[in-house]
């Protein structure tokens, strides 16, 4: 009898069966479905924090990605400005760390001999000097950055008053390796103020004159009683070496040029072989009495200093070479803010 | 004994709907409706077992989509009738009871899937993997229920 009644139920029209099901759910099974509804609501409430956290994490990821995109955009825009000022004689490249040798300061460039790149060509960014090409293959090359232990460049202050050699700090200067350079060989009678811009001097036949290297941060002890050494905060942060320009291809005489103006800085009409002993009043490098060896290091933080608007006594106007940017990864917006 | 049986049946039915529907566990909870029917059929006449199957099928059908309403009642009433019929040939003991419950649940799944088109929809996977696994789960649960009830009764 039960089987026969079941068959009748199966053969009922769908609407009737639906009504029967609804009736059962609203009567004897009502508590069960109420419990189900409660359980589902509780599950939703418990699931909400996780969902919200996931949405927040996704939003944070988008914001972080946008930040890196803006930094990359700024870097490319600065590089584009430099490329326009250079006109020709360079090859744009993408730099990546050499695998397993990232800390050595070597970079892999995606341009090589086929692009006109040769060993010894300078590598720069819109902020300043990165290093030089050391090894060239057909479609790629290896560049040596300022963080490398073999890096050295003849340097001078942007006003051309003080000369020296910029190199990597010795191992005794803990905390400076990979983050700063040392300007050594500055005559004792030449004292540099923090914030003085240091550029390549054009000596040695590798780096053209006038490529920004960094800003003087402070003085450190020098073993020689006739010389001074200074810590230089590099203009190009290692983390900002992504897009670079290799200078030289198609421009044979580049090494003899003065590129200071290409970075939006004023060229200095000072002979590279002249080492003046007196300086103009407005100069960043100040002559001092010789033979006053400093016993204590005079490391001072960089001071942002703004040149006064009018300087009638200044024989050489170098309005843009003082006032280093705050030491942050994507170094300075200074070149972008300068008049072309 | 009949009152105990009725109490156990009600308890199993309540557990079944609360676990599967109220708590939303679904197939993660054993099919206690079939277990209740198979255990009760060992103490009922075939006709009574068929009616019990019909009643349990109505409850089960109300928890399913409306187009499946009636199929559970049909299959469970047939299963109750058959279970009561085979009672004389099923020996006592946990192992035999386990096999009895396993085969009963497997027969229910095969019949239900066959009538509702589940075998066509789900294929051999349902027949060879899902149905035996579900049958084993329900038979173990039924064995535990039987052992508990017998201890309480004695």
What would your notes on this structure say?
Chain A has helices at 2-11, 14-26, 30-86, 334-337; strands spanning 90-97, 106-109, 122-124, 129-136, 141-145, 152-157, 163-167, 181-187, 190-192, 197-200, 212-220, 227-234, 243-247, 285-287, 298-299. Chain A has 340 residues and is an alpha+beta fold. Chain A folds into 2 domains: 15-86; 87-324, no CATH class. A 6-stranded antiparallel β-barrel of chain A has the order 1-2-5-4-3-13. In chain A, strands 6-7-8-12-11-10 form a 6-stranded antiparallel barrel. In chain A, strands 9-14 form a two-stranded antiparallel ribbon. In chain A, a hairpin with a 5-residue loop joins β6 (152-157) and β7 (163-167). The relative contact order of chain A is 0.14. Chain B is 79% helix and 0% strand. With 154 residues, chain B is mainly alpha-helical. In chain B, α2 crosses α5 (94-116), α3 (46-62) packs antiparallel against α4 and α4 (71-85) packs antiparallel against α5. Chain B is built from 7 helices and no strands. Chain B has one domain (2-153). The A-B interface holds A 1-3, 5-7, 9-12, 14, 17-18, 20-22, 24-25, 28-29, 32-33, 35-36, 39-40, 43 and B 17-18, 21-24, 47, 50-51, 53-54, 57-59, 61-64, 66-67, 69-71, 73-74, 77-78, 80-81, 115.
Q: How many strands, what sense, and barrel or not for the largest sheet of chain A?
A: 6 strands, antiparallel, barrel
Poorly predicted segments of chain B:
none
Shape verdict of chain A: elongated
Order of SSEs of chain A, N→C? HHHEEEEEEEEEEEEEEEH
Helix content of chain A: 10-25%
User: Could you say which overall geometry of chain B the principal axes of the C-alpha atoms support?
Assistant: globular
SSE pattern of chain B, N- to C-terminal? HHHHHHH
Biggest interface between chains: A-B, 27 and 30 residues
User: Structural class, from helix and strand content of chain A?
Assistant: alpha+beta
User: How many beta-strand segments of chain B?
Assistant: 0
């Amino acid at each position: 009898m039960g089987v026969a009644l079941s068959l009748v139920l199966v053969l009922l029209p769908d609407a009737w069966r639906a009504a029967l099901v609804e009736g059962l759910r609203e009567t004897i099974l009502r508590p069960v479905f109420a419990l189900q509804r409660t359980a589902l609501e509780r599950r939703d409430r418990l699931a909400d924090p996780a969902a919200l956290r996931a949405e927040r994490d996704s939003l944070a990821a988008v914001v972080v990605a946008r930040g890196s995109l803006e930094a990359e955009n700024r870097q490319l825009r600065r590089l584009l400005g430099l490329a326009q000022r250079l006109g020709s004689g360079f090859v744009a490249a993408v730099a990546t760390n050499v695998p397993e040798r990232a800390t050595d300061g070597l970079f892999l460039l995606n341009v090589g001999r086929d692009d006109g790149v040769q060993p010894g060509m300078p590598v720069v960014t819109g902020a300043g000097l990165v290093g030089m090409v050391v090894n060239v293959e057909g479609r790629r090359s290896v560049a040596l950055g300022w963080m490398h232990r073999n890096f050295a460049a003849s340097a001078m202050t942007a006003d051309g008053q003080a000369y020296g050699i910029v190199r990597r700090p010795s191992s005794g200067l803990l905390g400076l390796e990979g983050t700063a350079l040392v300007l050594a060989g500055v005559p004792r009678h030449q004292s540099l103020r923090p914030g003085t811009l240091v550029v390549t001097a054009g000596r040695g036949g590798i780096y053209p004159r006038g490529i920004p290297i960094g800003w003087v941060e402070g003085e450190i002890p020098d073993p020689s009683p006739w010389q001074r050494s200074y810590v230089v905060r590099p203009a190009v942060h290692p983390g900002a070496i992504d897009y670079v320009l290799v200078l030289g291809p198609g421009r044979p005489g580049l090494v003899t040029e003065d590129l200071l103006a290409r970075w939006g800085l004023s060229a200095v009409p000072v002979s590279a072989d002249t080492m003046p002993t007196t300086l103009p009043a407005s100069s960043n490098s100040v002559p001092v009495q010789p033979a006053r060896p400093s016993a204590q290091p005079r490391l001072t933080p960089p001071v942002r200093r703004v040149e006064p608007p009018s300087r009638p006594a200044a024989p050489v106007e170098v309005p843009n070479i003082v006032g280093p940017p705050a030491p942050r990864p994507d170094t300075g917006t200074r070149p972008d803010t300068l008049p072309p | 004994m009949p009152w105990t049986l009725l109490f156990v049946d009600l308890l199993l039915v309540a557990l079944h709907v609360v676990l599967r529907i109220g708590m939303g566990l679904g197939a993660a909870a054993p099919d206690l409706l079939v277990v209740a029917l198979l255990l009760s059929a060992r103490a009922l006449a075939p006709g009574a077992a068929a009616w019990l199957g019909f009643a349990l099928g109505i409850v089960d059908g109300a928890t399913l989509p409306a187009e499946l309403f009636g199929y559970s009642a049909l299959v469970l009433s047939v299963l109750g009738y058959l279970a009561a019929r085979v009672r004389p040939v099923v020996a006592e003991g946990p192992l035999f009871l386990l096999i009895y419950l396993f085969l009963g649940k497997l027969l229910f799944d095969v019949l239900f899937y066959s009538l509702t088109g589940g075998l066509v929809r789900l294929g051999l996977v349902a027949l060879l993997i899902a149905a035996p696994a579900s049958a084993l789960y329900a038979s173990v649960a039924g064995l535990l229920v039987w052992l508990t009830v017998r201890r309480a009764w004695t």
